[in-house]
Design a protein that fits this description.
14 helices, mainly alpha
Length: about 325
C-alpha cells in the first residue's frame, strides 16, 4: 500500500515539483552570475574611456553612483511600501551602510584611482584576487581552516599578478605603476571585507533591500568626498560624453550586476558565484585589447592563466 502510494501519479508530480524548485533556483542563480560577470567586466573599459575624455577618478565615481541612486531609492521604497520586508532595526541599517562604505565607496575609490595608473588588464586581474584575501580574512576572523592547498592557491594567485606586472613594465615607464597595483590591492581588501560579512546580512533582510541600503549609503559617502576634494567646476565643465559614460557605468555596470551578483550569492553561494566570475578578467583583457588598444603579451596571458587557476583553487571547496 505504501509503495503504491509513493508511485502514484500525484506523488510523482509532487516529487518533481520538490526537485524542480531547487533546480530552477540553481539555474537562475548561474544565469545571474554569468550575466553579472559580463556586465562587471565592462566597468574598467568605460572607466578608461571616461579618463581619456578628461574625467578624474572622483568625478567618474560620483557620476556613477549619483546616476544609480534614484533606482536604488525606488527599489527600496517599493520593497518597504509593498510590505514585503520586515521592519529594519537600527543595527541592520547601520550594518548595511557600513558594509556599503567598504564594498562600494572605499573599494570603488581605491580601484578607480589605481586604474588611472595601470592598464585595465592588470587592474582587473589584481582586483580579481579578492577570494584569496577572503580566505585569509576568514582564517583570521572566523577561525576557518587554511590548509596547504589554499595557501598554495593564494601564492599562485599573486604569482599571476606579479607575472602580469612584469609584463606591464615592458610597455610603460610610469613611476606610478607599483602604486596603482597597491591601490587596487587595497580595493580588493576592502571588497573582501564586504564579501565576508555581507552574506549573513543579505540573508536576514534580503539581497535587494541590503544592496539598496548599501548603495544609498555609499553614494552619500561619495558625495561628501566630492564636496571636500573637488571644485563644482569639475562637474559642470565635464564633456557630455563623460556623462554618457557615467550613465552606462551606473546602470549597465553597477545597478544591474550588483543585484545580479548579490542574488546569485544567495541562490548558489559565494563559492560557485566566484568560480563563474573567474571568466571576468579574461573578458576584460580581451575588451581592453580590442576597444582600448592596450598592449599585451604572452606574459600578460600567462599571468592571467596562473592567477585564475589560483583563484579557482581558493574558491573550490
Amino acid at each position: 500500500m505504501e509503495r503504491n502510494d509513493l508511485n502514484s501519479p500525484l506523488s510523482r508530480t509532487a516529487s518533481r515539483q520538490v526537485v524542480s524548485a531547487p533546480s530552477n533556483q540553481f539555474a537562475s542563480g548561474v544565469t545571474l552570475a554569468i550575466v553579472g560577470t559580463f556586465l562587471f567586466a565592462l566597468k574598467s573599459i568605460f572607466i578608461k574611456l571616461a579618463f581619456a575624455a578628461g574625467a578624474s577618478p572622483t568625478l567618474v565615481l560620483t557620476l556613477r553612483l549619483f546616476f544609480a541612486l534614484p533606482l536604488y531609492a525606488i527599489v527600496l521604497w517599493r520593497l518597504r511600501a509593498g510590505g514585503k520586508c520586515e521592519p529594519l532595526t537600527r543595527k541592520q541599517v547601520l550594518r548595511a551602510l557600513g558594509l556599503g562604505f567598504l564594498g562600494y565607496y572605499l573599494a570603488s575609490y581605491l580601484d578607480l584611482t589605481g586604474l588611472s595608473m595601470i592598464s585595465a588588464q592588470l587592474e582587473r586581474l589584481t582586483l580579481f584576487t579578492y577570494p584569496a584575501i577572503v580566505a585569509l580574512l576568514a582564517w583570521l576572523f572566523l577561525g576557518e581552516e587554511l590548509g596547504p592547498r589554499v595557501i598554495f592557491a593564494i601564492l599562485l594567485s599573486y604569482a599571476g599578478v606579479l607575472l602580469m606586472y612584469g609584463g606591464e613594465r615592458a610597455f610603460t615607464q610610469s613611476e606610478h605603476l607599483g602604486l596603482g597595483v597597491l591601490l587596487v590591492m587595497g580595493s580588493a581588501l576592502s571588497y573582501s571585507l564586504y564579501i565576508l560579512f555581507a552574506k549573513p546580512a543579505m540573508q536576514r533582510i534580503g539581497s535587494a533591500q541590503f544592496t539598496s541600503l548599501a548603495m544609498i549609503g555609499s553614494t552619500c559617502f561619495v558625495g561628501v568626498h566630492f564636496l571636500l576634494t573637488q571644485p563644482w567646476s569639475d562637474l559642470i565643465d565635464a564633456q557630455p560624453v563623460v556623462y554618457l559614460y557615467g550613465l552606462i557605468l551606473a546602470f549597465v555596470c553597477t545597478v544591474l550586476p550588483s543585484y545580479m551578483i548579490n542574488e546569485a550569492i544567495v541562490r548558489i553561494g559565494a563559492t560557485r558565484t566566484t568560480v563563474i566570475g573567474s571568466v571576468g578578467p579574461t573578458l576584460t583583457m580581451l575588451l581592453a585589447i580590442v576597444v582600448l588598444d592596450e598592449p599585451s603579451s604572452l606574459q600578460h596571458f600567462a599571468g592571467m592563466a596562473v592567477a585564475i587557476a589560483g583563484v579557482s583553487l581558493v574558491a573550490r571547496k
